[in-house]
Write a structure and sequence with these properties.
Length: 424
Amino acid sequence: MKVLIVGSGGREHAIAMSVAKSSRVDKIYCAPGNAGIGQIAECVAIGAMEFDKLAAFAKENAVDLTIIGMDDPLVGGIVDVFEAEGLRVFGPNKAAAILEGSKAFSKDLMKKYHIPTAAYETFDDPEKAIAYLKTAKMPIVLKADGLALGKGVLICSTLAEAEAGVKEIMMDKKFGSAGNHMVIEEFMTGREVSVLSYVDGKTIKIMSSAQDHKRAKDGDQGLNTGGMGTFSPSPFYTKEVDDFCRKYVFQATVDAMAKEGRPFKGIIFFGLMLTPDGPKVLEYNARFGDPEAQVVLPRMKNDIIDVMEACIDGKLDQIDLQFEDNAAVCVVLASDGYPVSYQKGFEIRGLENFEGKDGYYCFHAGSKLDDSGKIVTNGGRVLGITAKGADLKEARANAYKATGWIDFDNKYMRHDIGKAIDEA
Ligand code: AMP
Ligand code: GLY
């Protein structure tokens, strides 16, 4: 069969690698893709938000299945456009992708269906938000309602900071229309765990857990980024936590969406915080995490096409989802200066070192082929270097060893990805 993947990051490279392993697939397209994806798929120069062009491409090329990797097209309704054309597509439709697209929606859903999350209020008037802050306990968390590239969350330790935050989000519109509404919520403490799942509208199957490292610098210092590295599984995601989430979070969310007339088909990503009062939902995403996909997918034993088709057809209950009994670590190689400002266009050397190395992966996030045929840096996050190991410590040692196989000007990485493993 022929498969089209929509997106261009390390997550889409990991999806493409999983799809390439399927014996049922003989052709992969990726729009727009990147230089690494181009080694296993044919990249197509259509942007992820050009829904009509993408659907026309899928029709003309007799694509059997389209997989949407990114949040923006999902929230924008790409799945509805494909379905209206009679095309098979993996991902939630617009009515369901609101689970990620609106934090006010997801918080109200959790409140209505008693799914554990931080206490909160929603606002569409900055003056009312500021009046509320004057009565609230600090620190406090401000969230722009809509998509903001993972940057629409401000943690404020004083009232003055919080008032300035409301102004930034709602009046100066720092995150654009994402800031028309906002959520103000209680500050929670605890470890964070990412749990990804497949959902077919009624059944949910949980993947192996993972942990991201969102801050730019070692010791969780510096600005929030898209993610500087991940490990899987999380040793903090214990049987007790799993039991709790199966009882109060996972199926409850799927059932809530169905009851609201928004049955969810695709990936639900549960961002959890393990607080002293038990696990609580920080956020939902309607797609694989990036770079969580880079440590979870290489460990999945199933044929990804079988699982995705079961989600589309409402037959996920027939799938026995299985993961390898090992571990994986991903260290992101970024351009120095990310996430603020950085240079691009430097040659990436050493990519050939990954050839034929079982259990090592070099997922491309921001790379491109330049006019002379060289692969060069083309983004803040450039590569996700992933390695497996028998356990987390071995996987971490392998991943850091492999970061040394690659070189490019201004190469930057965190040196403490997976440090938490030592505290488990
Ligand atoms: P989100 O985009 O909602 O995942 O938020 C980004 C990051 O902000 C999370 O990964 C947490 O580290 C932090 N965060 C979000 N909400 C809270 C909260 N209520 N309490 C403490 N930290 C939070
Ligand atoms: N790594 C976090 C995310 O994909 O949102």
